[in-house]
Amino acid sequence: MQDFAGKVAVITxxxxxxxxxxxxxxxxxxxxxxxxxxxxxVLDKAAEKxxxxxxxxxxxxxxxxxxxxxxxxxxxxxxxxxxxxHLLFNNAGVGGGGNSWQATNKDWxxxxxxxxxxxxxxxxxxxxxxxxxxxxCHIVNTASVAGLLxxxxxxxxxxxxxxxxxxxxxxxxxxxxxxxxxxxxxxxxGIINTNILxxxxxxxxxxxxxxxxxxxxxxxxxARSQFAALMQQGMPTSQVADIVFKGxxxxxxxxxxxxxxxxxxxxxxxxITTATNPPLRNLTPDE
Length: 287
Fold this sequence. Notes:
Elements: E1 8-12, H1 17-28, E2 32-37, H2 40-52, E3 58-62, H3 68-82, E4 87-90, H4 105-133, E5 137-142, H5 155-178, E6 182-188, H6 218-232, H7 237-249, E7 254-256, H8 262-273
Helix pairs in contact: 1-7, 3-4, 4-5
């Protein structure tokens, strides 16, 4: 896709972070935008603020992306309002989780639902709509650089982000085999200045553990503070949005924000091909 003016974009996780920056970028490109987010009050406030700037082609749809029926409703509301959809950003995501055996079923269900099944639902619902339109479309699935590396994140987060990368690679193949005018990208951001460290604010009550998490040690608290400070110094989300649109225009499958991770990605590939065990890594505090 090269020309975005007048086209329709659907963005999940649109009320804050990368999703809000993508929303603003789409509007700057002259698009009509559907903003979806589970955080209804924040979503409404963000949409109203953008409308006050003169952007009236905004539809805000409160959506729990982990629920297939709500993704179906999101698509239907988009078509009812705008008739078509040309850009889909499966962007919603959460942090949190635990290690490979201590995370609870509810931890897994929450992170898997938001980070991976939301993308699965988005593809199953929106791709047939895009195919039926017969015009140029693009899909961006948000993963993480953690989906390209080994052992740098907690179990559930890493599994979902590797899953999104793999799913998008298969999507790329499937779209090519069907010979449809739809391209796709997987966004693998590095350290970005977002509020992902407070993802628990949106955790559904039925997926919250009954037993409280153990109190963090002083060392864990210190590590958490250091990582939060690192996040605040991370890449601005507006810059991420610019990188994403460059990738869309160039139909790039893999979109990265930080080339500083490339050596670690190459090291992982080397370890795989030479049957070499990776080095142990220290995780970030919420991982």
